[in-house]
């Protein structure tokens, strides 16, 4: 990859400031290996300062996350409060901290939360219980002794004795389970006044399932707030991040002191997941990042190529977030240097783009409604899991592939609905809450456009007879109906006709600030703002990332001749394609800047001077 002088200067300035701004989590690496005695011996025996130094030199990361305790429940470093794997050689955590601190790199622990098989084995009475009273093999009770007995003391040790910058709690919200321990059932009955009469609501067919599931969710939120508050009371600058908390896995307002939102993307199609999860993280208004796996779990671990990770990361940084990727540590805790050397070209790619992406946010154009009640009522959704995502993730993917700048919006944000020209309601599982529907009606009457999609949604709101895309005047605005549900099937069987049909109808409802006129190939567009400046993020989404049978690829066809029409407040002095510093020719006509981006290899930012 060739860098021009402008990019080099920006990169040098950026790297010099890594140590100075220790709050940033823009680009990082994640290591873990879920240590256990049966699989791991002599942990630390081959870990060297020189390997960690090489990682710092190759990647210049803002942060590194390294294993402390995985789901089996065993600690992979010397600890006074946990259960360390026998036979640890030296002190691996001290070695990681020594070298990262010397290089101004933040160090976080990868630490399993609710998911702790060893604690459940030692204390079955503190494991979550199913309806038959059988304790879980691996998931702890969030209202039991585990959090104070093990989790908090070990994390405080990482903050105090080891001087880490933070912890990334894995296996937490998505590990929480329905718990029918008699103590939990009694507490539910006392708090809610509901008498279950010994009939436990173990699935959606039972009475009070919803009430009980929401109570278990409340217990998890209380648990998260408790350990966060306890840790911050003693170590206020220590960063506590719970994997997937306050994302689409766990929708709702932020109620604990998490400084950052983070999650690890599904390895099967990280671009598709990144689009969806990134947009759910943006909604919360906190710093955020997402992690891609560097490998696919097919035929063992098949590692991706640098260009695949660049493309996956581009879907995240184009939304203003940070990006990290995951490389497994060896069974003795050493980093896999062979893989890390192979993937090193990613560092230059991401560092060059920081100035034009990190800390920005999408501007408000098309919004897709993600209502909490709908998300938590999806079949198989459990407490806080990834299940039941197809309607929303497919809809986001159709719109992104069609070149529409799209965001997610929660019911809480509908107070500011007027800032969006269009709000799309996905095919519903049940009627929206009355207050949510009333807000959407008021938004349409005031001049907005509500687009109802899918057969269930149109039936819920009296549009059963609509068989073709149709718009209806409501007050000063519009309620439109797109009668088909094409989003779920798009994940597994994409049709260009589905993209064109929905996008063409959407464009009859609003005039986008950034309009994709034409392009050769698929380009994702984000109407973007950073430091008060409007920009346009362009992500090349060609390639085989939807295909689970395509494990690796070293060439992604570029997107060519991207013709854009952008509304601006005034005529720009110049238009640049960054980070290359390439000046683009443009035409100014009636408040619109029209230009062509000749080529997008993976990611570019259009900047107006």
What does this structure look like?
The protein is an alpha/beta fold and 609 residues long. Among the domains are: 113-257, no CATH class; 364-512, 3-Layer(aba) Sandwich (Rossmann fold), CATH 3.40.50.880. 31% of the residues lie in helices and 24% in strands. It is built from 17 helices and 28 strands. The strands form six sheets. It has an eight-stranded parallel β-sheet with strand order 7-6-3-2-1-12-9-8. The protein has a six-stranded antiparallel β-sheet with strand order 13-21-22-28-24-25. The protein has a six-stranded mixed β-sheet with strand order 15-14-16-17-19-18, sandwiched between helices. Helix 2 links the parallel strand 1 (27-32) and strand 2 (63-69). The longest helix is centred in the middle third of the chain and has 26 residues, at 209-234. Mean pLDDT is 93; it is low at 1-22.
What attributes characterize this protein structure?
31% helix, globular, single chain, 24% strand, Rossmann fold, six-stranded antiparallel β-sheet, 609 residues, eight-stranded parallel β-sheet, alpha/beta, 17 helices
State the shape.
Answer: globular
What average pLDDT do the residues reach? 93
**Helical stretch tally:** 17
Q: Largest sheet, order of strands side by side? A: 7-6-3-2-1-12-9-8
CATH class of the domain at 364-512: Alpha Beta
CATH architecture of the domain at 364-512: 3-Layer(aba) Sandwich
